[in-house]
Amino acid sequence: MKRVRVMHWLISVVFMISLTSCSNPLSNVHDDAGNRLSLNRIAELREEYPLSTGVPPTINMREVSFREMMDFGEAVIVAEVVSELPNFSVDLRDEPGTPEGDSAEKDKDAGIGPYKPEFIAYKVKVLQVVTGEGVNEDTFLFYNADFAGMEPELKPGMRIVTVVKKGTTGEQVEGYSFTRYGTYYIVDGDYVLSAYEGESEELREFTGKTNGIQVDSFIQKIKELAHS
């Protein structure tokens, strides 16, 4: 009888160990009852969705918060990347008396040709306009090619939440600029992962609260920022 009880106890222990080992992979993916990605899962996802870092050595710039990007941009959208587009260039406006015009005049006096920036572009399908002005369902996003390797490198099929600014000249006009400061990837179907985490306390506090949360929660946060 004693031996039978021992066998029952051993079987129970093995069964419990089996249940525990089966549940571990899930606990490594989600925290807070599935409402947020775990740190381990975020680290894994960074292989496919790396942080955008770095600044061109010739450019002096500061970090910009997500809230500042919202104030600067026309809208926040959810979009799916359809394809990469060929790079394009534009002639900057250089009317006399404007900063661009003064810079162009100085370049001309120094024997330097006018600056004609090149842009990296992606065709996207807009799935939702979260806040701001309406955006066509089929459009394109772009950023200055000087920041290649420092801004998000989007791939077809990726989905993002991003702040967009209407293009102002040349081929930009039909599209929108975007930047790492205002971009989150949608990962694992229903969660967001920031393209940039920042160095300032303000930026790190924001990404600390939003990295890995569910898309709906992030969208609600954006709407609250828009009305605050």
Topology, element by element:
Layout: H1 2-29, E1 30-31, E2 36-37, H2 39-45, H3 66-72, E3 75-89, H4 99-109, E4 118-132, E5 138-144, E6 159-166, E7 176-177, E8 183-187, E9 191-194, H5 201-210, H6 215-226
Parallel strand pairs: 5-7
Antiparallel strand pairs: 1-2, 3-4, 3-6, 4-5, 6-7, 6-8, 8-9
Oligomer: single chain
- The number of helical runs is 6
- Count the beta strands: 9
Write down the overall mean pLDDT: 83
Task: Give helix and strand order, one letter per element, not per position.
Answer: HEEHHEHEEEEEEHH
Q: Span between N and C termini?
A: 71 Å
Q: Rg, please?
A: 24 Å
Question: TL;DR of this structure?
Answer:
The protein contains six helices and nine strands.
